[in-house]
């Protein structure tokens, strides 16, 4: 009877404990990064939200743990490429990062900043771009100034090309390693590199010679390399400069001729003919 | 009066009595525990206080999200010796479909938004991250823009002035109100943001995102109309009439070429006129002399 009572009581105690504490976990703190996924691309230059969970560890704001450091209480140190960026007890860490690929490492530490034993860490790699995280970059030439009055025919030596891009961010080159959907526009005139465009603006061409010209715009990464697959567009137009015929030299010659004619008329009108006869008679007499 | 029992029997009775008491107490404890775990607690609720549904988040600023929770206790998931209770856990925040926050406190938080419409959703979850049953979540739709909060987009052409005579190239300056110029790169349309199109006649010749004057070149000669209009990110024209402006101008040849031409031509014409007059006068005099000789032989 006594043994039965103890067995029953033990079973009930176990039942009560089992019902009231189903979430008790195995000993030993753990740390898991929930978001973003490893090798994720963070678009539009937004801060990287790093979301993590821990187990068997109490997160407390740094510096609030009191004199004795507990091995199961503390905060998280966030390292970006090995550099300590944030020490926090919040389970979402916002990391504002420039374009590039980074290794983000989170480490559980006690309140005084010492790592646990064994060390508890978790890390991911993310890529930040100013462009969209997803999407297929495209570029198209939208307008050629002036295609007037005939499309494709430019009556001048200066031309301006406008372009339109999709799912791609224009940034100055030299910012670092290439990242997705970000870079600049390389402009080629008749197959020869002409200029780089790093902002949304018209591309001016000046003093083009008469004839057909082809302008190609190509999206390139930070290092100037064409995207894979190639993303480009081109347009061909004819320069036919309507030059004004300069008739000033002809007018000058006409002025000289007219002035000479006037002189001749005046010369004859004021007895020039008699003078001429006299002179010719004298020359003729000498010769005879 | 209770009869005296032998000492051993009294001891046995006492033990049996205490055991029964302990058993009853234990059963009562189990009963209380079981009844409390199955009791119908008030259901958790969640509401987003701000922003309001459909709110416009202007000027490219982050949105501050404020929310209220009742019958639910926020706790840090994964704490030491954690005993999970009903109506206890944390919240997950989603921006559209992206997981952006894990909340362990009922505090306002900010979110950076790109231009366009977005949905912010907060969901209460249990300690292990699973949604409550039934699901408790709240969502709100907002529209983000780099443009201003209100006002009617407007553009005015400052230069050239109407009917101004100009050469083949001209700077067009304009003033924009209640509209922010942003680089179009396939992003959704958003209120009061976009870019500028310049037109010659009805043809769009240029797209810009600059507030400074724009140089138009190779303009055709004659009477033409220069236009400036505000468009959305996808190039659709704003319906608002004040979002476009036009100005008629007259394009003429360059004076650097025409002035010498006019002066030289003028001089040549003058000389020709003088020559003709002299020749005519000489002929007239010759005819007069002939008449005079005929009258007085």
Describe this structure in words.
The complex is a heterodimer of chains A (288) and B (297). Chain A is α+β, with helices and mostly antiparallel strands and 288 residues long. In chain A, 20% of the residues lie in helices and 39% in strands. Chain A contains 2 helices and 18 strands. In chain A, strands 2, 4, 5, 6, 8 and 9 form a 6-stranded mixed beta sheet that branches. In chain A, strands 11, 13, 14, 15, 17 and 18 form a 6-stranded mixed beta sheet that branches. A 3-stranded antiparallel beta sheet of chain A has the order 1-3-7, with no helix packed on it. The N and C termini of chain A lie far apart (181 Å). Chain B has 297 residues and is α+β, with helices and mostly antiparallel strands. Chain B is 25% helix and 36% strand. Chain B has helices at 7-38, 255-295, and strands at 45-50, 55-57, 63-70, 73-74, 88-95, 98-103, 109-111, 116-125, 137-144, 154-159, 164-166, 170-177, 180-181, 193-200, 203-208, 214-216, 222-231, 244-251. In chain B, the strands form 4 sheets. In chain B, strands 2, 4, 5, 6, 8 and 9 form a 6-stranded mixed beta sheet that branches. The radius of gyration of chain B is 46 Å and the shape is rod-shaped. Classes of the chains: A alpha+beta (288), B alpha+beta (297). Chains A and B meet through helix 1, strand 1, strand 3, strand 4 and strand 10 of A and helix 1, strand 6, strand 15, strand 16 and helix 2 of B.
């Amino acid at each position: 009877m006594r043994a039965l009572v103890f067995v029953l009581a033990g079973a009930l105690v176990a039942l009560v404990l089992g019902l009231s504490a189903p979430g008790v976990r195995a000993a030993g703190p753990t740390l898991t990064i929930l978001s973003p996924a490893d090798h994720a691309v963070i678009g539009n230059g937004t801060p990287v939200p790093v979301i993590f969970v821990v187990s068997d560890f109490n997160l407390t704001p740094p510096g609030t743990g009191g004199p004795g450091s507990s091995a199961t209480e503390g905060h998280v140190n966030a390292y970006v490429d090995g550099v300590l960026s944030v020490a926090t007890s919040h389970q979402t860490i916002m990391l504002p990062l420039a374009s590039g690929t980074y290794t983000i490492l989170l480490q559980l530490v006690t309140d005084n900043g010492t790592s646990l034993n064994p060390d508890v860490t978790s890390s991911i790699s993310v890529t930040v771009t100013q462009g969209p995280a997803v999407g297929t970059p495209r570029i198209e030439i939208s307008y050629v100034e002036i295609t007037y009055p005939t499309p494709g025919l430019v009556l001048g030596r200066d031309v301006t090309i406008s372009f339109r891009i999709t799912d791609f961010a224009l940034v100055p080159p030299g910012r670092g390693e290439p990242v997705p959907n970000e870079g600049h526009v390389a402009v080629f005139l008749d197959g020869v590199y002409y200029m780089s465009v790093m902002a949304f603006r018209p591309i001016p061409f000046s003093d083009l010679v008469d004839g057909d010209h082809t302008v190609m715009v190509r999206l390139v990464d930070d290092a100037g390399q064409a995207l894979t697959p190639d993303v480009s567009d081109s347009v061909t137009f004819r320069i036919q400069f309507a030059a004004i015929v300069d008739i000033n030299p002809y007018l000058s010659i006409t002025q000289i001729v007219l002035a000479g004619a006037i002189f001749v008329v005046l010369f004859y009108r004021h007895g020039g003919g008699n003078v001429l006869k006299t002179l010719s008679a004298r020359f003729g007499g000498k010769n005879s | 009066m209770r009869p005296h029992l032998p000492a051993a029997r009294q001891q046995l009775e006492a033990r049996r009595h205490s055991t029964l008491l302990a058993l009853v107490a234990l059963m009562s404890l189990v009963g209380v525990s079981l009844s409390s775990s199955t009791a119908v607690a008030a259901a958790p609720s969640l509401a987003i206080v701000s922003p309001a549904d459909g709110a416009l988040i202007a000027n490219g600023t982050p949105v501050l999200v404020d929310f209220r929770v009742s019958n639910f206790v926020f706790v840090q998931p994964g704490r030491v010796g954690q005993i999970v209770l009903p109506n206890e856990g944390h919240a997950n925040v989603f921006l559209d479909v992206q997981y952006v926050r894990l909340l362990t406190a009922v505090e306002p938080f900010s979110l950076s938004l790109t231009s366009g419409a977005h949905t912010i959703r907060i969901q209460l979850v249990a300690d292990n991250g699973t949604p409550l049953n039934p699901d408790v979540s709240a969502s709100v739709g907002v529209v983000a823009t780099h443009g201003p909060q209100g006002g009617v987009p407007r553009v005015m052409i400052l230069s050239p002035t109407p009917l101004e005579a100009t050469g083949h190239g001209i700077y067009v300056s304009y003033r924009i109100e209640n509209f922010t110029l942003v680089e179009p790169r396939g992003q959704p349309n958003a209120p009061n943001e976009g870019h500028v199109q310049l037109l010659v006649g009805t043809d769009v010749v240029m797209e810009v995102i600059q507030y400074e004057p724009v140089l138009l070149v190779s303009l055709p000669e004659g009477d033409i109309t220069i236009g400036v209009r505000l468009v959305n990110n996808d190039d659709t024209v704003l319906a608002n009439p004040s979002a476009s402006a036009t100005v008629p101008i007259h394009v003429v040849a360059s004076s650097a070429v025409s002035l010498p031409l006019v002066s030289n031509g003028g001089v040549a014409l003058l000389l020709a006129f003088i020559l003709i007059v002299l020749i005519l006068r000489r002929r007239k005099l010759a005819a007069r002399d002939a008449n005079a000789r005929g009258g007085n032989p």
